[in-house]
C-alpha cells in the first residue's frame, strides 16, 4: 500500500485542516497521535495525495470535514480480506499488515533511514521501529555493493 496510514483511529479522525504545506513546500499531515500523544508531521507521497483528492467530495468527508471516509477497523479488515481473495493473496491482510508493509517495503527497501521511518510511524522509541526493520538480505546486498564501489574508487584514486 503506497499510502502510509498513521494509526487507524488517527486516520478516521484526520481533518482537512491537518493537511498543510510543510517546510519543503509539499503537502504534509500535521497532527497529534492518539495512542502516543506525540506531535506528528508526515510528508505525503503523490499516491496518497491522489487518494485524498479522490475522496475530497465524498459526502461523509464534506459533512464532517474529514480527509477520508474510513470505516471501522473491523470493516476495513473485512474489505482487505475481500481484496486478498480477489487478488489471490494467501496472507491475511489487516491495517497492521499494511502499516508493516509500508515500513519495510516502501521505506526501508527504498533507503529511508530508520530515524525517519520511526518518526513517520509515530514511534516514541527507535527500538520499536527496529522490530519493523528486520534487515532484508536484498538491502544488505545493496549496501555492501555500494560500499564495494566506494572502496574500489578510493583505492583506484589512491594507488
List the helices and strands and how they pair.
Blueprint: H1 8-12, E1 19-21, E2 27-32, E3 39-43, H2 46-54, H3 59-64, H4 73-87, H5 95-107, H6 114-121, H7 126-132, H8 137-158
Antiparallel strand pairs: 1-2, 2-3
- Report the span from N to C terminus: 48 Å
What gross morphology would you assign? globular
Q: Please, what is the average pLDDT? A: 85
Which sequence of SSEs, written as H and E, runs from N to C? HEEEHHHHHHH
Query: What would you call the structural class?
Result: mainly alpha
For the record, the count of structural domains works out to: 2
**Quaternary arrangement of the chains shown?**
single chain
Biggest beta-sheet profile: 3 strands, antiparallel
Strand content: 5-15%
If helices are DSSP runs of H or I spanning 4 or more residues, what is the number of helices? Answer: 8
Query: What is the rounded Rg?
Result: 19 Å
What is the tally of beta strands? Answer: 3
Summarize the structure.
The chain is mainly alpha-helical. Helices cover 53% and strands 9% of the residues.
What does this structure look like?
The structure is a single chain. With 159 residues, this protein is mainly α. It has 2 domains: 1-70, no CATH class; 71-134, no CATH class. Helices cover 53% and strands 9% of the residues. The protein has 8 helices and 3 strands. It has helices at residues 8-12, 46-54, 59-64, 73-87, 95-107, 114-121, 126-132, 137-158, and strands spanning 19-21, 27-32, 39-43. Strands 1-2-3 form a 3-stranded antiparallel β-sheet, with no helix packed on it. Strand 2 and strand 3 (39-43) form a beta hairpin. Helix 6 crosses helix 7 (126-132). The longest helix is centred in the last third of the chain and has 22 residues, at 137-158. It is globular, with a radius of gyration of 19 Å.
Amino acid at each position: 500500500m503506497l499510502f502510509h496510514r498513521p494509526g487507524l483511529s488517527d486516520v478516521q479522525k484526520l481533518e482537512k485542516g491537518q493537511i498543510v504545506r510543510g517546510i519543503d513546500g509539499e503537502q504534509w499531515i500535521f497532527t497529534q497521535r492518539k495512542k502516543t500523544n506525540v506531535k506528528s508531521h508526515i510528508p505525503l507521497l503523490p499516491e496518497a495525495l491522489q487518494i485524498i483528492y479522490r475522496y475530497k467530495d465524498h459526502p461523509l468527508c464534506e459533512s464532517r470535514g474529514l480527509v477520508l471516509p474510513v470505516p471501522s477497523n473491523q470493516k476495513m479488515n473485512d474489505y482487505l480480506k475481500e481484496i486478498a481473495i480477489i487478488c489471490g493473496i494467501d496472507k491475511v491482510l489487516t491495517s497492521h499488515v499494511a502499516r508493516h508493509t509500508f515500513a519495510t517495503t516502501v521505506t526501508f527497501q527504498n533507503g529511508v533511514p530508520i530515524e525517519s521511518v520511526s518518526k513517520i510511524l509515530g514511534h516514541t522509541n527507535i527500538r520499536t521501529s527496529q522490530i519493523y526493520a528486520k534487515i532484508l538480505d536484498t538491502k544488505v546486498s545493496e549496501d555492501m555493493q555500494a560500499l564495494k564501489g566506494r572502496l574500489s574508487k578510493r583505492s583506484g584514486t589512491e594507488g
